[in-house]
Design brief:
The structure is a homodimer. With about 210 residues, chain A is of the alpha/beta class. Chain A contains 6 helices and 11 strands. Chain A starts with a strand and ends with a strand. At the A-B interface, strand 10 and strand 11 of A face strand 10 and strand 11 of B.
Amino acid sequence: MSRLRFRISMSLDGFSAGAEQSRKDPLGIGGERLHEWVVSLAAWRAPHGLEGGEVNQSSRVLEEELANIGATIMGRNMFGGHPGPWSSSQPWKGWWGDNPPFHHPVFVLTHHPRPPLVLEGGTTFTFVTDGIAAALELARSSAGGRDIALAGGADIARQYLSAGLVDEMELHVAPILLGKGERLFDGVADLHGLRLVRTVAAPDVIHLKFRGS
Amino acid sequence: MSRLRFRISMSLDGFSAGAEQSRKDPLGIGGERLHEWVVSLAAWRAPHGLEGGEVNQSSRVLEEELANIGATIMGRNMFGGHPGPWSSSQPWKGWWGDNPPFHHPVFVLTHHPRPPLVLEGGTTFTFVTDGIAAALELARSSAGGRDIALAGGADIARQYLSAGLVDEMELHVAPILLGKGERLFDGVADLHGLRLVRTVAAPDVIHLKFRGS
């Protein structure tokens, strides 16, 4: 069966985004420091249409992460656009342009209904208004037996974690402090059986993989 | 020159002690889970007078940590005893019995003066009432050129970290959530140049060593 695989970057002090997130600054103050390890990788740059990049210990972690994914679930904040009902005159199409790097069905959790958005390269965004279990069911039925990526943000991740629905979690721990921001595990006091199964040390990040029993 | 070396165990969600710490429960609720990795080690059990124990990837980390230490600094809470002025009738002598496992001078930061306490095996406790810089100076002058261990607790550690006085930090990250408790880095937003220099992955803990430039 398709497994739900969650991955996120986190600072040493537990923040997965900086303070004062906004549409202009979706990662919050200092939040881009959580992602420096990944944007420098060739394995990340290529699917985002960028040249060059490094190959290091993190490369195989990222390749592993991107492999065998048949669907993605994300929250409304991660998809972006103004909060509240969707604008029909200038509909927000996500951060990723006309040919997003997913190339599979993406399910966006939102409180506001919207018809599906079909973009180039096999990426469709389907907007789900009836909660995390419904989104997971839809993702399962469209993943073609492959796994489902839980892309975040932290709020959605906490809901899936608290419900015990996450089968695998990859934490990319950046060895920095943010001091303020969104705490990944706020209110989550139990990993629901997720256990550390693999650690990869890169110079600028530690990759911790957890798996359910 | 003697370096100030800080070491502490922390949960994945950033807690170095559980909630509701008390004299009866100094680690707080669930706090003992942060230390399971170390109490199982032969290298920890021997100096504490206990038999048996494991040898694994954590053993050399602990041996490294204990090596070349000429003095220790700790906070009043870590030393223990009722808060407030010291009782002269039944003076608290620490948690470690008549022959504590330090075998070198220990400096206890406190607001309440008290004469030094000389115990067996070379351990003396000196009570310092004039702050972290004074304690560090005293420790340096008595460490015989070896390093100084900053034993904690978290409150004292935060003071030294915030003042940029820590030369080395070893974080033992337990891959668990506590949900509540004392946040190690609360109010500390800057590592003052401490950078990740070494990661050791053990099955039940990840050891992250940071060093100043």
